[in-house]
Batch of 2 targets.
Target 1
Amino acid sequence: MTILDRYVETHRGSGRLHERALRLFPNGVTHDIRHQAPFPLYVERAAGSRKWDVDGNEIIDYIMGHGALLLGHQHPAVVDAVAQQAQLGTHYGASHETEVRWGELVCKLVPSAERLRFTSSGTEATMMAVRLARAFTGREKLIRLREHFHGWSDALTGQPPPEETLPASPGIPAGMLAASIVLPANDVDVLEHTLSDEGSNVAAMIVETTGAHWGTYPLDLDYVLRARELTAASNVVLIFDEVITGFRVTPGGAQVAYNVTPDMTTMAKILGGGLPGGAVAGRAEIVDQIAIPVENTPGAVRRERIAHPGTYNAHPLSAAAGAACLELAASGVHQDRAASTAAQLARELNRALREEAVAGAVYGHSSMLHIALGMEQQPPDGYGWGWRALSVEPPRVSGTTSQALRRGMLNEGVDLMAGGLMVSSAHTDADVDRTIEAFRRTLRAMKDEALVA
Ligand code: PMP
C-alpha cells in the first residue's frame, strides 16, 4: 500500500470533515500551513505531547500549537488558570489585574521590554512595531532579510527585488512593497553598504532572531552583533521578532542567549500560553508614542500619537493562560527539558538517516528542529551548528517529497511542523523512541516509492 493510500484509509473521518470544509473555506482550511493533500488531519483532543484525531489515531505532536505550547497540551496550571478566569468573566471591557501581572512577567523576563502593549496576535505585534519605528524615526524604509517571516500585514508581506524569493501578494499597494529593502542574511558588507547609502531613510531593521523560518536558515551571531552596532550608529530601530523564539530559546528569548538588546521585540505564541495573544515591547520612548498626551498638564506638549485600540488586547482568558505559562517558563527548566529532548531527537534522527542511507540532516537550536532531506552535511555534534550560519544551504525539497514525509509520519502517528519539530517540555523519552521508529519506517516507505535517495 502506498503512503497516500494508507493515509486515506486510516483517516477516513478527517476526509469526511474536509468534504464539508471545502464548501466553506479556501482549500477547506483555516490556516495556510494546514493545507494538505488530499485532506488535512481533524483533531478532537490533545494532552501532554499527544493529540487524537477524529478517527481515534493517537499522534505525537510536534506542531505544538504552531510553537505556542512550550509546556505541552493542557498543562494543568494553564487549564486551571483559564477555567478560573472563565468563571469570573471572559471580557470586562476594562483593565484587570491579570494583564498587569502578565505584563510584569514579560518585563521581568525580556531585557528589551521597558514598556509594552498586548495585541491579539504576532501579526498585530509586528505591524505595530513597524508603525512605532516609522513614527519614532520619521523615516519610511524597512530592512528585512530574505525569507524572514513576520506575519501577513501589508508592510511585511512579499519580498521585493533583488532578493525576491516569494511572490509579492496581490492586493498590496506597490508603494508598500517598495518601502522594504530585502537583504540576504548573514552578509555584513551588504548591510553596511545599505545603511551607509540609505541609512537616513531607514526606520527599522526587523529579523527573525534565530534566522528565517524559525532558524531553518540560521542567523550568524557575528551578523547579529554587527547589525546591532550598525543600526545603532544609523539610528535605525532594531526589531527582534521573537514570536517563535520568545520564552523558548531562554526565558527571555534569543536576545538573552545572544546577549544583544534590540530596541523593540515582538512576541506571541508562548506568551499567551496557547491562547491568542501578542505583544509589542521595547524602549519606553518608542512604545510611549501610543500614550495619550495628558492635556491641561502644565508643560504638556501637544503631539501626534499612535492609536492602539483592539477589542481583544490583553483578553482576560489569554492573560490568565499567558501569566500561568510565563510563571512556569521563568525558571528555564521547561526550556532546558525541551531542548535536551530535541538534542536527543536530532542525534537519533540523524543516526536513522545514516543507517537508512538517506541523504539528509536534522539540526536546530534549543527546542526547534529542522529536517533537511537531501542535505549532505550533518551537524558536527549531531544536533546543531551553534549560533552560526550554515556553510551548506539545505536543498529545496519537492512538494511531493515533503508531503510524503508529513503523510508518512502521520501514518506512523507523528505530526511534523512544516518539515521540522517543535519540541515541548511534555515530550518524553518514550516519545523520542516512538518518533525514531516512525521516522525509520517512513524513510523505508519513501524509499519504496523512490521519494528519497
Ligand atoms: N513572526 C514570526 C516569526 C512568526 O513565526 C509568526 C507566526 N508563525 C508571526 C510573526 C505571526 O504571528 P501570528 O500567527 O500570531 O499572527
Target 2
Amino acid sequence: MLRRLLLYLSEAGWMRTLMARFWLARRVARRFVAGETLDEALAVTRTLNGRGLPVSLDYLGESVQRAEDTRSVVAMYRRLVACIRQEALQASISLKLTHLGLDIGEELCVDNLRAILTDAQQMGVPVTIDMESSHYTDATLRIYRAMRDEHGFANVGTVIQAALKRSRDDMRQLAAEGARIRLCKGAYLEPASVAYIDRADVDAHFVQIMEDFLPQTPPAHLEIATHDENMIAAALRLVEQHTVAAGHYEFQMLYGIRSARQTELAAAGHTMRVYVPFGETWYPYFMRRLAERPANLWFFIQALFRG
Ligand code: FDA
C-alpha cells in the first residue's frame, strides 16, 4: 500500500512543486542524487572512477510537455558527452525518451535522440535508453531498434523490467539480436494485467531471464541492475557456470545504495557501474527510491525533523 501511495505521489504535479521548494527535501534527496549541476555530477564521477567504479550519468527529467524545453536537455547531454571525452572519464550516459519529447511526438524525440547518439558515438560514449512505465515499452523498443538497425548506432542499449510479464519474450528476441540490455526489476506502478505484483514472482522472472540470456551464443551483453543479493548470487552462479566472459556482463547499482557492496564486486574483478543521476528535476526519481524501501521514508522523516 505504502509503495503504491509513494509511486502515485511520484507522478503528482502538486507534490512535485511543493517538494522542489522545500530545501530540506532537496538536502535529503542528495543521498540518491549527485547534485543539481553538471560540475557536481562530474565531481562524483571522478571520485567513483577513482574507486574503480565506472558510472552511467543520467540528467534527471521526464514527461516534458513543450518542444522548446527539450532543447536544453539535448544541449546538456551533448556537454556531458564532451566532458566525458575531454576528461577520459569511465562513463556512459542514460536518458529517458519522455525527457526528449516522446509525449509531444515520436519524430521530435527521435531527432533529439539522434543528435545525442551522434555525438556520443563520435566520442566513444555508450548510451542507454531507460525504460519508463509500460505505456512506453513498445515505443521505447521500437525507437531503440530503429537507432541500432536503421541509423547504425552501435553505442545504444536499453532496459528491460522483470516486473513486466512480456519481458521474457522480449529478452529472448533481444538476445538473438545481440543486444546490450540492462535488466532491472522495474520501478513503476503497473496493473496486474501487464505486471507481476508479487515481489517473489518478479524475482523468479528476473532469474529466468538471466538463465535464458547469459548462456546464449554468440553472447549478447547483460547489465545486471539490482541491489538484491539473491539476484546478484544467481548472476554470479550463472556467470561461473557458463564461463561468461568479462566483456559480456556487468553489475550496476544506483548511486547511494549499497556502496560497500559496489566496491566489493569491483574488487572481486567484476565490472560494477554506478548509475549517477543529477539535475534539478530530482523529485520523481527520489520518490521512486523512497517507494522501493519503506525504511527510506523513515530516514527521510527523521532528517526533516532533525532539520
Ligand atoms: P529490491 O527492491 O528487492 O531491493 C533489494 C535490496 O536492495 C533491498 O532489500 C535493499 O537492501 C536494497 N535497496 C533497493 N532499493 C533501495 C533503496 N531505494 N534504498 C535503499 N536500499 C535499497 N527501473 C525502471 O523501471 N526503469 C529503468 O530504466 C531503471 N534503471 C535502473 C538502472 C540501474 C542501474 C538500477 C540499479 C536500477 C534501475 N531501475 C530502473 C530501478 C529498478 O527497477 C528497481 O526499482 C531498483 O533497482 C530496486 O530493485 P532491486 O533490484 O534493487 O531489488
